[in-house]
From TrEMBL:
The gene is miaB. CDD domains: Radical_SAM (cd01335). This is tRNA-2-methylthio-N(6)-dimethylallyladenosine synthase. Belongs to the methylthiotransferase family. MiaB subfamily. It comes from the Bacteria. One of its GO terms (molecular function) is tRNA-2-methylthio-N(6)-dimethylallyladenosine(37) synthase activity. It catalyses: N(6)-dimethylallyladenosine(37) in tRNA + (sulfur carrier)-SH + AH2 + 2 S-adenosyl-L-methionine = 2-methylsulfanyl-N(6)-dimethylallyladenosine(37) in tRNA + (sulfur carrier)-H + 5'-deoxyadenosine + L-methionine + A + S-adenosyl-L-homocysteine + 2 H(+). Pfam families: Radical_SAM, TRAM, UPF0004. The keyword Transcription regulation does not apply. Its EC number is 2.8.4.3. Monomer.
Length: 433
């Protein structure tokens, strides 16, 4: 028997791409994974198209493989993910060394595409097929795994925010049936997983369970050895009553919610086609905090959207002041071809830069004070791996803070009560209770 071929996958973008990369590696059964491109027989870039820089990274990475391909003519290079979907054949025109292009909804066809590429032909599939890719993927391997896992439950988006490529790259909203998700979750738990993060571009629009995402969360909470449930990313308009209530009464649902608002001025929210006002957002947060006062919030912000005035931007800062985020991601608006906002008059780069700096300074200081406020408190930590120093283990609190503890007895997967004694630059230090 010949040695298995080696597969190197590089993942960009969101957590869903992390999940997809795992499933793509599993789909290519004749390969074993390698963590360097140097000895690979196939390189697959799982790409992101969300901002211009993200897409450009792919081409510069491909440029780096020229030498490898020259030394090893059998090396196959593939592009998967959202750039593959958005640019399709263009990728092969711009980078002729690419053998294979596969979109996020057709990667169950990877084995055939790989065979086609091996036979020397160009292989391309960016369909949005009728069939559900998950039903056509091989069943997942039984190997032991770490304590945390992602699990995609919903894909695609029907919201069409004026800045965003996701509805075009991932297609329409589709939910996986709840029974399939519960059985995949059971399987993950049998393999050692203790915390599952449910993924979707609009995860709270999930409708594969008759009671929506809250129904699915409650069904998953029945799995005894599953200790923690999280979900991301949510849209404010899909935070229904049941899901809000679940934050108060479902113990396994962690008190941390990523709820992007993007901007704080009603004018900009409208121009972004977000379909809600700043007050709607405040109301949702008030209701969540009523049932779960210790909830930590996280968000995404875009600065420098077309027509954003200094006054509009001040409204975003004001919204942040009121909400107080535990963490957040913020970006300068980036024009994306084919989206409505790309056609509008753009703000100068210098204005975007300056606003991003002010916004990030505020977010960092909030993050800092929420993290520092953990000192003296008791949290639950799910330990994931050894820390950098000997005798140290690191895990995450329910609020997603990284926590270091000195201990010789802890192992990955342990869930323990920890008293926080110190707040460092990026993590907390604690002692076992
Ligand atoms: N589905 C999620 C987010 C998907 S994209 C949601 O609706 O919130 C992740 C984040 O990237 C977005 O929340 C937004 O803040 C940012 N983003 C999307 N398109 C962008 C663009 N054209 N320029 C800058 N940031 C963008
Ligand atoms: Fe993009 Fe808006 Fe859909 Fe989120 S809700 S994926 S930002 S279009
Ligand atoms: Fe990027 Fe696609 Fe995710 S564009 S953020 S990889 S859905």
């Amino acid at each position: 028997m010949s040695a298995p071929k080696k597969l190197y996958i590089k993942t960009y973008g969101c957590q869903m791409n992390v999940y997809d990369s795992e499933r793509m590696a599993e789909a290519l059964a004749g390969y074993e994974s390698t963590d360097t491109p140097d000895d690979a027989d196939m390189i697959l870039l799982n790409t992101c198209h969300i901002r211009e820089k993200a897409a450009e990274k792919v081409y510069s990475e491909l440029g780096r493989y020229k030498g490898l391909k020259a030394d090893k003519p059998d090396l196959k290079i593939g592009v998967a993910g959202c750039v593959a979907q958005a640019e399709g054949e263009e990728i092969m025109k711009r980078q002729p060394m690419v053998d294979l292009v596969v979109g996020p909804q057709s990667y169950h066809r990877l084995p055939e595409l790989e065979a086609k590429a091996r036979s020397g032909q160009k292989a391309l599939d960016t369909d949005f097929p009728e069939e559900d890719k998950f039903e056509h993927l091989k069943s997942r391997p039984k190997a032991k795994r770490g304590p945390t896992a992602f699990l995609t439950v919903q894909e695609g988006c029907d919201k069409f925010c004026a800045f965003c490529v996701v509805p075009y790259t991932r297609g329409a909203e589709v939910s996986r049936p709840a029974d399939r998700i519960v059985s995949e979750a059971r399987d993950l738990v049998e393999r050692g997983v203790r915390e599952i993060t449910l993924l979707g571009q609009n995860v709270n629009a999930y409708h594969g369970h008759e009671r929506g995402l809250a129904g699915l969360i409650r069904a998953l909470a029945e799995i005894e050895d599953l200790k923690r449930i999280r979900f991301t990313t949510s849209h404010p308009n899909d935070m229904d009553d049941d899901l809000i209530a679940a934050h108060g009464d479902c113990e396994k649902l962690m008190p941390y919610l990523h709820l992007p608002v993007q901007a704080g001025s009603d004018k900009i929210l409208k121009r972004m086609n977000r379909q809600h006002t700043r007050d709607d957002y405040f109301r949702i947060i008030d209701r969540l905090r009523e049932v779960r006062p210790d909830l930590h919030l996280s968000g995404d912000f875009i600065v420098g959207f077309p027509e954003e005035t200094e006054e509009d931007f001040a409204q975003t800062l004001d919204l942040i002041e009121r909400v107080k985020y535990g963490s957040a991601f913020s970006f300068k608006y980036s024009t994306r071809p084919g989206t409505p906002a790309a056609e509008r008059d753009q703000l100068p780069e210098s204005v975007k830069d300056e606003r991003l700096q002010r916004l990030q300074a505020l977010l960092v200081s909030q993050q800092r004070s929420l993290q520092d406020a953990m000192v003296g408190k008791t949290v639950n930590v799910l330990f994931e791996k050894p820390g950098r120093l000997p005798g140290q283990m690191v895990g995450k609190s329910e609020y997603l803070h990284a926590v270091h503890v000195e201990s010789d007895t802890l192992i990955p997967g342990d869930l323990r009560s920890v008293r926080i004694v110190e707040s460092g630059p990026n993590s907390l230090k604690g002692v076992l209770n």
